[in-house]
């Protein structure tokens, strides 16, 4: 009887307390993408920043000032080569070729978070929302979710378990990008997912005081390190890497390119269907090439279980898709 009551009590615990998203970059099952990954075909080429205050409740302190817009361009530079946004600050990035929506993640955002030496499961992360636009006017936000507690303010030395975060720009530490799949943005007539021209990063004001708080897509207050009354206040944007863009994946005039990978999840053999196939490259989540072939049937039985990125290269383009090996 006692055991049955215990089960019932557990069943009544809110789902959010148990929910787990992809873990930190050094954990199995992570979605983190290393800056050296060849999955990236391009990087942001333009950036404008509207700085937020160092501390939103004390505007007399002034705005964040660390770094400049050029440090968000090109490949990630690491801990100090970043531009700080301040509380609620905004960075808008543009690209030489528009990002396009293909299977799997389409781009990734890099920050400069670092591990907590006292608690290896948590990281110092200053969070940001991610929005996209196909006209530079109308922006649409990825549905970000946090399950970080909101009873106690984290403080400027606070840290977060990345497994409690989804679709925030700074889920991972320095040199590891957070991937974003355009399929996760709600469809809208004002958004052309096949031609994304702008990516906007909006700093999360991590204060849990309702007067200044920001909220995720499920209505949760977002708790991150705050206040940070320094020149480097707010999220520190390092780079935005492109996985799919029009310059590297041209669509023929007679219709959409068809590339299929199946089954997914896969246990041993992965089948590739693509016209004019040239090569298939398999990468782990830290960007290391683990397999390369030109065959349409790939034996993955020797790989450990987990998430992989498969790049299919054809004569007239390429595509990268995430698969799960079980």
Features:
five-stranded antiparallel sheet; 326 residues; mainly beta; 23 strands; globular; disordered N terminus; 32% strand
Describe the protein's architecture and organization:
- The chain is mainly β and 326 residues long.
- It is built from 1 helix and 23 strands.
- The protein has one helix at 2-12, and strands at residues 33-34, 42-43, 46-50, 83-84, 90-99, 107-110, 114-115, 123-124, 128-133, 140-141, 145-146, 165-166, 176-180, 196-203, 236-237, 239-242, 259-262, 269-274, 277-283, 289-293, 297-299, 306-314, 317-325.
- It has a 5-stranded antiparallel β-sheet with strand order 1-13-6-16-2, with no helix packed on it. A 5-stranded antiparallel β-sheet has the order 3-5-14-9-10, with no helix packed on it. A 4-stranded antiparallel β-sheet has the order 20-19-22-23, with no helix packed on it.
- A hairpin with a 6-residue loop joins β9 (128-133) and β10.
- The longest helix is centred in the N-terminal third of the chain and has 11 residues, at 2-12.
């Amino acid at each position: 009887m006692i055991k049955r009551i215990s089960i019932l009590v557990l069943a009544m615990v809110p789902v959010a307390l148990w929910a787990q998203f992809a873990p930190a970059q050094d954990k199995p099952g992570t979605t983190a993408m290393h800056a050296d990954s060849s999955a990236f075909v391009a990087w942001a080429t333009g950036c404008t920043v509207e700085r937020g205050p160092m501390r939103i409740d004390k505007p007399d302190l002034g705005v964040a000032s660390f770094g400049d817009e050029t440090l968000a361009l090109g490949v990630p530079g690491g801990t100090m080569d970043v531009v700080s946004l301040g509380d609620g600050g905004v960075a808008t990035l543009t690209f030489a070729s528009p990002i396009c929506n293909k299977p799997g993640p389409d781009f990734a955002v890099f920050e400069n978070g670092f591990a907590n030496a006292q608690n290896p499961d948590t990281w110092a992360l200053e969070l940001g929302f991610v929005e996209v636009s196909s006209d530079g006017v109308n922006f649409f936000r990825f549905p970000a979710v946090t399950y970080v507690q909101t009873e106690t303010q984290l403080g400027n030395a606070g840290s977060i378990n990345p497994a409690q975060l989804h679709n925030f720009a700074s889920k991972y530490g320095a040199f590891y990008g957070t991937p974003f799949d355009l399929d996760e943005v709600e469809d809208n007539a004002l958004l052309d997912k096949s031609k994304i021209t702008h990516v906007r990063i909006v700093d999360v004001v991590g204060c849990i005081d309702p007067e200044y708080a920001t909220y995720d897509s499920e209505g949760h207050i977002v708790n991150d390190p705050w206040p940070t009354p320094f020149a480097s206040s707010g999220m520190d944007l390092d780079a935005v890497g492109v996985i799919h863009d029009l310059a590297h994946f041209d669509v023929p005039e007679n219709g959409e390119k068809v590339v299929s990978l199946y089954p997914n999840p896969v246990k041993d053999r992965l089948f590739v269907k693509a016209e004019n196939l040239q090569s298939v490259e398999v990468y782990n989540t830290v960007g290391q090439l683990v397999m390369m072939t030109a065959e349409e049937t790939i034996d993955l039985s020797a790989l450990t279980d987990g998430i992989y990125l498969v790049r299919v290269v054809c004569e007239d383009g390429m595509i990268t898709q995430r698969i799960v090996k079980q």
